[in-house]
Amino acid sequence: MSTILDGKATSNQIKEELSQEVTALKASGKRPPHLAAVLVGNDGASLTYVGSKVRSCEKIGYDSTLIRLEDTVTQDELLETIHTLNNDDTLDGFIVQLPLPKHIDEEVVLHAINPDKDVDGFHPTNFGKMALGMETFIPATPFGIMELLHRYKLDISGKHAVVIGRSHIVGRPMSILLSDKGNPGNATVTLTHSRTQNLAEITKTADIVVSALGVPNFVTADMIKQDAIIIDVGITRVPDENHPKGYVITGDVAYDEVKEKASFITPVPGGVGPMTIAMLLQNTMLAYKRNS
Ligand code: GUN
Fold it and tell me: Rounded to the nearest whole angstrom, what is the distance from the C-alpha of residue 226 to the centroid of ligand 1?
């Protein structure tokens, strides 16, 4: 039976800390941090995530701006919006919610963001700094996982960490951070992906597994070692008629069986997801401090 890594409670704690900072800033006559989010189109999941980001800003006293664009927006129009945000002095940071419609080149868009305002940490300048261990904006999901390990005082130094998935926003940065010098850090990392052979043989040797694959219930109990730490980044909407929303959010990990074998485990929902939002707010505070 494992201990739950409670991302919801931990993120609330971080938000409370940030909220106290904002109160102190306002008391001394300063403006609060200001985050903007650009949302293109009407994707249900993206709407939920961006809504959550904006609400969290309001809750802790940040200013927030939501910019919604039609899914027919051209790439040039989106780049124009980014240009405006880059030059808006009242704004500390902004994000462009992914995924973008197919006719828009994500890479071009992310590269157009001023790295000083890139609180998602997706710009090559910030990704490069992160990879070199320099202070920068660390992508919020891997940052949230590192913070969760830190606050639960889980020691991964010298341990074998297996990351499943090599996306630019989770798997790849996660593999770098886990192996970095620091606490938490110093893990021996294996980054696995769709071409990996004998995945289960590899995950069975892991002291910590981070799954960022997006395949519901992919990681089963027979794939993990007794007392492994299990971090589930999956948030797939699985159709379910019995649920009022018509779907359930399902992680990559077969939670019920894996929790019996793991030492620590993140639930879905309430694990990594809320931590992502808390770390975006933390990055925005860093942008604000650099800006003032
Ligand atoms: N889509 C899924 N995760 C993220 C994220 O962390 N940031 C942005 N901008 N889009 C996402």
Answer: 32
80 lies in the same domain as 196: no
> What CATH number corresponds to the domain at position 77?
3.40.50.10860
Take atom 8 of ligand 1 and give the residue whose Cα is closest.
97
Are residue 257 and residue 199 in the same domain, yes or no?
yes
Cis bond before residue 184 (omega within 30° of 0):
yes
Does residue 154 lie in a domain region?
yes
Q: Which domain range does residue 108 map to?
A: 29-114
**Residue 244 domain-assigned?**
yes
| 195 part of a folded domain | yes
Phi-psi region of 18 (alpha: psi -120 to 50; beta: other; left: phi over 0): alpha
* Ligand 1 site, residue 233, Cβ cutoff 6 A: no
Cα–Cα distance for residue pair 224/200, rounded to 1 Å: 8
pTM to 2 decimal places: 0.98
Ligand 1 centroid distance, CA of 260 (Å): 31
Same structural domain for residues 157 and 110? no
Instruction: Tell me how far the alpha carbon of residue 205 lies from the centroid of ligand 1, in angstroms.
Output: 30
| Whether 64 contacts 58, CB under 8 Å | yes
Number of domains the chain contains:
2
Residue 153 exposed, middle or buried by CB count within 10 Å (0-12, 13-18, 19+)? exposed
Question: Is 127 inside a domain boundary?
Answer: no
Task: Determine which residue's CA is closest to atom 4 belonging to ligand 1.
Answer: 98
* pLDDT tens per residue across all 292 residues of the chain: 899 999 999 999 999 999 999 999 999 999 999 999 999 999 999 999 999 999 999 999 999 999 999 999 999 999 999 999 999 999 999 999 999 999 999 999 999 999 999 999 999 999 999 999 999 999 999 999 999 999 999 999 999 999 999 999 999 999 999 999 999 999 999 999 999 999 999 999 999 999 999 999 999 999 999 999 999 999 999 999 999 999 999 999 999 999 999 999 999 999 999 999 999 999 999 999 999 8
User: Which residues partner with 37 through β-bridges?
Assistant: 66, 95
Give the domain CATH number at 161. Answer: 3.40.50.720
